[in-house]
Amino acid sequence: MNTASLPNAALGSRPVPAPSSSGFTNLDVGSPRLGGSTKPVAAGWDILGGGADIWGKSDQFHFVFKEMSGDFDIAIRVESFTPAHLYSKAGLMIRETLEANSPHLMFFVFSGNAPRNNNLGAYELQFRSVAGSNCQSIYPAVRPPAPPEFPAAYPNSWLRVERRGNHFLAFASTDGKTWKLYAEHDLALASTVKVGPALTSHNPQLPAKAAFRNYTESK
Predict the structure, then answer these.
(1) 20 — pLDDT class (breaks 50, 70, 90)
(2) What residues does each domain of the chain span?
């Protein structure tokens, strides 16, 4: 199933998963020309990321991750985002392997609300169903020139992804308490996956920077 965002669908207030920043490691995926880095801070990470993109048949980005198995509910706040390109991406990655062509699902934000292809707003959900296949995106139901349905709200651009078997739900928030459904999608990923914040520059010559805060998770 591949469901676009539902303009009036809101999850509403709900308990936020428990904070957790233990058990993570970081590395570059896909051998970007500019290497990335991760600086742990009190409430999360400051990440520097290079890479051509997370898109097409192969990805290049910096990844802070841990392994999770079965169902889960993860969320994070993007406090700030300094892009290197209109299509620099910062978000939550759920990935089968650390190979550049791995199947994955990523819910992410851009640095602002400038129109991009079919997207007016800062949020987007993308996925790669099979290793080495092209990525696809699920865009907001509201298209230009209407006001964005899911605008950036730095320092409070929150992302949340729930996994229920092979069913994934992506939610956005501006306060980390009230969540609005962006989209849901069925994707057959392995039971054990690598999850966490990911950042790609989309400009091989320059890095992007993002401050990720308040990561939470529950099973």
Answers:
(1) low
(2) 25-72+85-154+190-219
